Amino acid sequence: DAGVIQSPRHEVTEMGQEVTLRCKPISGHNSLFWYRQTMMRGLELLIYFNNNVPIDDSGMPEDRFSAKMPNASFSTLKIQPSEPRDSAVYFCASSLTSGGTYEQYFGPGTRLTVT
Amino acid sequence: QQQVKQSPQSLIVQKGGISIINCAYENTAFDYFPWYQQFPGKGPALLIAIRPDVSEKKEGRFTISFNKSAKQFSLHIMDSQPGDSATYFCAASKGSSNTGKLIFGQGTTLQVKP
After folding, report:
1. Any residues with CB less than 8 A from the CB of A16 and at least 6 apart, and which?
2. In which element (H, E) is residue A54 found?
3. Which residues of A touch B106 (CB under 8 A)?
C-alpha cells in the first residue's frame, strides 16, 4: 500500500486566494483526520470523518475553513480566503477503527505558506 | 477533561543515556495510549502503544510505563542514539467513541548529542 497520499506537498499562495488540500486515505480505512501543525500551537485536530461522515469539526478555526469527504478514497480541506496566519503544515491521517485498534497513519503533509 | 499534558517541551540527552518523557490525562474513559515519533519533514508515525490492563510495555529500547491510579504514562528510551532525535507525541483515546479520535499532547523535541 502506498500509505496516505497528500497533495500538493508544498503550496505558496497570496493572501485572499483559495487553497485546496487533498488527501487519499489508505484503502479500507474508515476514519480520516485533518490536522494542522505549527511551532506555536503544536498538532491540532481540525476535523475528522468516520465512514465519510463529519463527526467533529470543532477544531476548524473559522468559517474560512471547510472539509469534505465525498467518498471513502478522497477528502479535501479548503481555505477561502486564505490568510498569512494559516501558514502551517497540514496533515491528513487515516485509521481503521475495528477491534479496538486506533493506529493513525499520517501522510507526508502539505506545507502551506500564505504571503 | 479531554486534555493530555506532556512534559518536558524539549529534552537534550547524551548518546547512551536514558530519555524520559511524561504525560498525564484526566479522562478515566481513555483506554488506549500511543506514542508517536515525528522526524523533521515527515508525518508522525506510531512508535509504541499501551492499554491500561498492563503497567509496562517494552519494544526494543522503547518502554511505556503506565500508572493508572495516577493517570500518568511515560516513554523511556534506553541507550538513546542520535537517530532518536525527533519530536515525540503522547496521545490517548477512548474505545467507546469507535471513531479512532486521538487526543495528542503538545510534543517533546528530543535531541541526542553524539
Report:
1. A81, A82
2. strand A53-56
3. 42
pLDDT in tens, B9-45: 999 999 999 999 999 999 988 988 999 999 999 999 9
CA distance B33 to A9: 30
Residue in A with minimal Cα distance to B98: A97
Which amino acid, residue B110? Answer: L
| Intervals of chain A under pLDDT 50 | none
- DSSP letter at B32? B
> What are the angstrom distances between the C-alpha of A104 and each of A4, B15, B92, B111?
10, 30, 12, 25
How far apart, in whole angstroms, are the C-alpha atoms of residue B108 and residue B22?
Answer: 9
Grid cell, residue A94, equals 487515516
Residue A71 C-alpha, separation from nearest chain B C-alpha, in angstroms: 17
